[in-house]
Amino acid sequence: xxxxxxxxxxxxxxxxxxxxxxxxxxxxxxxxxxxxxxxxxxxxxxxxxxxxxxxxxxxxxxxxxxxxxxxxxxxxxxxxxxxxxxxxxxxxxxxxxxxxxxxxxxxxxxxxxxxxxxxxxxxxxxxxxxxxxxxxxxxxxxxxxxxxxxxxxxxxxxxxxxxxxxxxxxxxxxxxxxxxxxxxxxxxxxxxxxxxxxxxxxxxxxxxxxxxxxxxxxxxxxxxxxxxxxxxxxxxxxxxxxxxxxxxxxxxxxxxxxxxxxxxxxxxxxxxxxxxxxxxxxxxxxxxxxxxxxxxxxxxxxxxxxxxxxxxxxxxxxxxxxxxxxxxxxxxxxxxxxxxxxxxxxxxxxxxxxxxxxxxxxxxxxxxxxxxxxxxxxxxxxxxxxxxxxxxxxxxxxxxxxxxxxxxxxxxxxxxxxxxxxxxxxxxxxxxxxxxxxxxxxxxxxxxxxxxxxxxxxxxxxxxxxxxxxxxxxxxxxxxxxxxxxxxxxxxxxxxxxxxxxxx
Length: 504
Fold this sequence. Notes:
Blueprint: H1 2-10, E1 23-25, H2 27-33, E2 36-41, H3 51-60, H4 64-69, E3 71-74, H5 78-90, E4 94-98, H6 104-112, E5 116-119, H7 124-138, E6 141-142, H8 149-165, E7 172-176, H9 181-193, E8 198-204, H10 209-216, H11 239-248, E9 251-255, H12 257-271, H13 277-292, E10 299-304, H14 313-324, E11 328-336, H15 341-349, E12 354-358, E13 366-374, H16 381-391, E14 395-398, H17 403-407, E15 423-431, H18 436-444, E16 449-455, E17 462-470, H19 476-486, E18 489-492, H20 497-502
Parallel strand pairs: 2-10, 3-4, 3-6, 4-5, 7-8, 7-10, 8-9
Antiparallel strand pairs: 1-2, 11-13, 11-14, 12-13, 15-17, 15-18, 16-17
Helix pairs in contact: 1-8, 1-9, 3-5, 3-8, 5-6, 8-9, 9-11, 12-13, 12-14
């Protein structure tokens, strides 16, 4: 099997549309990690991601009759653009099924290459199923985004370029992982020529299908995937890609969304390029891997896989980057409600710069404040600061890793409602499309009063919403039935300490 892929990769036709991207040495990233770091710049492809390689290689191998009839694909972004570009170059009609939640900028990009866009469903799974139906009904060739030998071989040309461009010592190549097509192609090529080079996959913690599958020894289907790094948001890896990864991938790294945000910022500071979350994923994994294993003076390559980021998402990235780099800590602190208390609190902070401060009067004896503090990176300074505050008699909670606090509570501090009896709190993920809120309200009916609602757009396919509802104890079964029929992802937050301190 490896020899078969080696031949496929060496004889691909990807360079009809793709370019050989540069391997850029990154001096700032190298200094920051204590290792020599290069970025493989797939964000510089014509469609700003590597996906055009695999899509074109698959389609270039079709017969004239198949091309004339046309192809169909399902995608929310990069694969769609790759297929549309390949169709344009090969004069083949392309039908791309995209979720209705797909941002307009991505829909327009596909149409600019002549692709016909069909909007269907609220997520990739629904779009994929519909695309398969179209392929069967109209007898069109389906171009899979990752689980196809020709697509894998097309992505494998990145590994071929790396071997040619980097002839010196190389310790590891870090690759973002969604369905596994990219890492499979790179791994199967590099391991044949440079078996000593480690191939390390990187996934977000809320979309770690490959990590779980490799540990289980079989493909695992995730109940839910996170949407921030949408380029790798896959519930189940491919059959073929899983076989290849079992044989050729050395290790997997799982990172947080905050670490991805920090990686986007780091790469911008080094290259002045803004990558999409999935595009910066490999470098985020490199940082965690090197720090966790205390590696220095090694030679690492990270795949910068794409730059199709929505402008609106940059606000969210900027908010979270400092936390991801551990340059900002977020605390909930209780101080006395009296004149001079805030000054005394700031005195204890000493030279630490306050990055955020949220407060509203609620209790005549105690003040609950939500505060962000700048801290030196890569130190235990936050823990020391918590210990210092507690030793001075301040009840302190570290909220740096509290997702609800970072997404919602920081914007709601002081919004107490003493009359909101029987209030429960839930986080929902709403499809980012017209009618999503109305669907929620229709199914909820007039059964319970909404006592709190917070939403802020982050330029993603789904919006994150915090909702408080007044649900009497006797209505719990009825309420659970409502949740089960809603069709949105949800999580209860009534017991979250941030809610208890600032809202309840």
